[in-house]
Design brief:
Blueprint: H1 2-10, E1 15-19, E2 25-28, H2 30-36, H3 40-43, H4 56-68, E3 72-80, E4 86-98, E5 101-110, H5 112-158, H6 165-186, E6 195-197, H7 199-214, E7 219-223, E8 231-233, H8 235-256, E9 262-275, E10 278-290, H9 318-328, E11 332-338, E12 341-349
Parallel strand pairs: 7-9
Antiparallel strand pairs: 1-2, 1-5, 3-4, 4-5, 6-8, 9-10, 10-12, 11-12
């Protein structure tokens, strides 16, 4: 029965810790190891302060639970972990008596996952609504464009004066340009052709393209984790998605005339990461960081919407197309930005669901 209870604790998503009367660690389940990013064997017997820094409220709760023999629950508390990471969490502290020895059982449920799920669902719903409107608008634009182009061609054939052909050619070329813009607004038309890919092959292709394009004017730093396994993806689409994000940073650096402009390409493998409502065992994180001026606050919430751009000559389609491609790979793009540091994080699961053509 003891092994059954241990198995039960080991499979909980909440972190469970057991402390002795001196508030030293006597047990921690795997969820706790993932939360604190440390193995139980390494810190067994150490004081809880080695995991959660000297937070007056948290440690007062431990004292109160010990003195009163009553459980205490806190919602949406901010906990500063030993590694410097601050998390939002719900936690419960419960006293327990076992063989005349008093223990405290601490359950910690991070809210970051719930916040992420809620934020991603809201963003996804907004993007789907916007995409539906754009598809309807694109359909309404494409029909008259075809008629306009056809009429210009017929007019060109009937013109008695060849000097007037230049005007019909302007109409035809502008109709073609608008047609191309509408097609780009709709994003990728084809489902991704999945095959095993090394993400660093993709990034090296992009590195070579950008290095040639910038001719050394922008420093490009590569920081790769070579242990990342292959992921399933569409090579051309992933190149387009990541290249769109990198070019977005390059353009920001160039237009702002940033001194010593720099872009960093970074890869990491992340364990137990939530994308949407699904928790993945292993996820590839691609970080694209630049030292440019940052993204204006007014654009941050709509950054991945089509036709939204901070540049006067920008179409606002690059990031929207990138997000659409990564979504088709069951992934996500996020961004955090402040003056001097803008980072886009691309997350792609390293185990994929291939149903429905994926």
């Amino acid at each position: 029965m003891h092994s059954f209870y241990k198995q039960l604790l080991d499979n909980l998503s909440a972190a469970v810790l057991m402390l002795d009367s001196d508030r030293c660690l006597r047990y921690m389940n795997p969820a706790g190891e993932m939360l604190f990013e440390v193995s139980f064997k390494r810190i067994e017997g150490e004081n809880i302060i080695s995991l959660i820094r000297d937070d007056a409220e948290f440690h007062d709760v431990l004292i109160d639970a010990t003195d009163s023999s009553h459980s205490f629950t806190k919602r949406e508390a901010q906990l500063l972990l030993y590694n410097g990471k601050e998390i939002a969490a719900d936690y419960c502290v419960s006293p327990m008596l076992s063989e005349h020895t008093e223990y405290l059982v601490v359950e910690i449920q991070p809210r970051d996952r719930l916040i992420r799920i809620s934020r991603e669902e809201d963003a996804r719903n907004q993007r789907e609504t916007t995409r539906g409107l754009i598809r309807g608008l694109a359909h309404e634009i494409k029909n008259p464009l075809g008629g306009l182009r056809g009429a210009a061609q017929l007019l060109e054939r009937a013109l008695p004066d060849e000097s007037l052909v230049d005007y019909t050619q302007v109409i035809i070329s502008e109709a073609d340009r608008l047609q191309n813009l509408v097609d780009r607004m709709l994003g990728p038309r084809n489902m991704p052709q999945m095959k095993p890919l090394n993400i660093h092959f993709i990034l090296e292709r992009i590195y070579n393209l950008i290095a040639a394009e910038t001719a050394g004017d922008v420093e490009i730093v590569r920081d790769y984790d070579p242990s990342i396994p292959d992921l399933d993806g569409d090579e051309e689409q992933l190149i387009q998605a990541v290249l769109n994000v990198v070019k977005n940073g390059i353009q920001a650096l160039t237009e702002a005339k940033t001194p010593m402009p720099r872009v960093r390409l970074r890869t990491r493998a992340i364990r137990q990461f939530t994308l949407g409502a699904e928790r993945h065992r292993l996820v590839c994180e691609i970080g694209i960081t630049d030292n440019g001026p940052g993204i204006p606050e007014a654009l941050k919430e709509t950054l991945f919407y089509p036709m939204i751009s901070g540049r006067a000559e920008g179409t606002g389609l690059g990031l929207s197309i990138a997000q659409s491609i990564i979504n088709q790979h069951q992934g996500l793009i996020e961004c955090k930005s402040e003056p001097g540091c803008t980072e886009f994080m691309i997350y792609i699961p390293l185990e994929q669901n291939h149903e429905n053509g994926k």
